[in-house]
Amino acid sequence: MIIKTGNNNFDEEDMHKLESILSLDYLKPIQTSESKKKAHTAVIVLTPLLYIFAVFGLVSKNYTLFTVEIVLAVFFTAWLIWYYTLGKKTQENLQNIIANALEKGKNIQLSEEGISADAFYKYEDIETVIIYEPFYFWITKEKKLIIMKINPAKEENIRSILDKHQNITIIKTDKPFNVYKYLKDRP
């Protein structure tokens, strides 16, 4: 039996939901990209000002003001260093993962032997399937990600295939999750 998912067309709402999950935006309050830019600009501008205010607090012998300002300034400085060294790189890596996974998910065929996406993956090569309706996240043992959008009519057939393979961990969730933790190498 071959199940063709056909063209896995991800509409704008699907893309937004997937990007939110895969870029870890589920951890943050909902923000538009414009408000993110404004918040980032505010941190960049306010950080040096906090150091200046801390000096004024020290000169005026207001040690409480000095302590608060210097702690905030150090925190913002540490965040900026993290963002420009690790955060940006992590975000770019996640965007590449998203693009690759969506590209693989466009034309997928499932058979009794495995999944045909960008390559053929036997079910023995699949480590985890995360079901976040209507999406199925297939994670291989090589930590590759394939995203499928499943319509309800074909879901029963796919579930029956998955039930036959005990080596696949099936996780069903209705809450956004960190797919990145499944993709990084585990000991």
Give the SSE map.
Layout: E1 3-7, H1 12-22, H2 33-59, H3 63-104, E2 107-110, E3 114-116, E4 120-122, E5 126-132, E6 135-140, E7 145-149, H4 152-163, E8 169-172, H5 180-183
Parallel strand pairs: 5-8
Antiparallel strand pairs: 1-2, 2-3, 3-4, 5-6, 6-7
Provide a descriptive summary of the structure in words.
This protein is of the alpha+beta class and 187 residues long. The protein has helices at 12-22, 33-59, 63-104, 152-163, 180-183; strands at 3-7, 107-110, 114-116, 120-122, 126-132, 135-140, 145-149, 169-172. The strands form 2 sheets. The protein has a 4-stranded antiparallel beta sheet with strand order 1-2-3-4, with helices on one face. The protein has a 4-stranded mixed beta sheet with strand order 7-6-5-8. β6 and β7 form a beta hairpin. The longest helix is centred in the middle third of the chain and has 42 residues, at 63-104. Residues 1-7 and 26-32 have low confidence and may be disordered.
Radius of gyration: 23 Å
First-residue to last-residue Cα separation: 36 Å
Q: What low-confidence regions span 5 or more consecutive residues with pLDDT below 50?
A: 1-7, 26-32
Mean pLDDT: 76
Kindly report the spatial arrangement of strands forming the biggest sheet. 1-2-3-4
Q: Looking at the structure, what is the overall shape? A: elongated
Total count of helical runs of at least 4 residues: 5
Query: Would you report the number of β strands?
Result: 8
- Fraction of residues in helix: 40-55%
**Portion in beta strands:** 15-25%
The largest sheet, given as strand count, sense and whether it forms a barrel, is: 4 strands, antiparallel
Order of helices and strands: EHHHEEEEEEHEH
**Class per helix and strand makeup:** alpha+beta
